[in-house]
Amino acid sequence: MKRTMIATGLLVALMGLATPSQAEADADRLACGNSVRKDSVDACGRLIGRANLSKTERFMALFNRGWAHRRAGANELALADFNTAETVDREFARLYLSRAQVKRETGDIAGAGTDLSRYIALMPNDWSGYHQRALNERSRGRHANALDDIAKALKLNPFAKDLPPLQVLTLVDLNRLATAKTVADRILAGRSSDAGTRYARAVVLVRQRDLAAADADLDAALAAEPLFSAAHALKGEIAEARGDQQAARAAYTMASRTGGPSLEESAAHKRAEARIASLDAGPPVKVAAKTPVRPAVVAKAETSAATKISAKGDCRRYIPGAAITIAVPCGQ
User: What pTM, to 2 d.p., does this model score?
Assistant: First the structure.
């Protein structure tokens, strides 16, 4: 009992001996280490300005401030901190994974690929590196490379829920629809409530022009994940193809919200916003069936979700989420 009291007394005494400067530094270390705190940026800045920081402390202050900037949406400031951190320590693997995400969001897709390859070289057994590089390769149109990275990630982590739908969608990118459908069917046979794979299979089904089955998969995906932006966007496109603008607008409005799965979320937001603006602008201007239409004009027209009359006189609508043009009744 006496020893406990003595030890406690010594601890209190030592704390009392701490200088105000030391106490402030300790408080800054605590705040800087938690990048979700509002005062994290300022705390990290004060630490970085200290002359007596160790190399490790300086690196972590820069890295943590980079993440604080990233969470605040200040990607350019985050990138600057990550770049400076690299000059302090080039072997900290997570730096490259973090910087790759910022580079991809700021449009430097090639730079993100370089950082992801560096991360994989440092952490070859971490599935997330291959997953992130697959996303990056897909955004660059390198679908075969993306599929290869997905296979490596699945080998390391066969239970990662984000990988199967990405695999299906990448197979769709390669126009391997039968294989994509087979993979999706196999996954959903064991995990019927897998919202991501339900959405991915819906994309396949739309490409195969089975809109009813695609709609059913999207309903199941949204029952599991009500804020699934990509599923709402594709549902809106199907509704538009059927001429139901009210249902389409409702789906696009839901697609504009955040908080659901990240799968194709950014692209879904952009498509939804564009389609809402188009619906607000009024009905599309239609081309008379008897008017000659040059093939180049038809190709350009099909980049919009509006109904167009082709050179043959039939009506078609482009569905961006599945990258196909389908026949629809004229007059919508």
Answer: 0.77
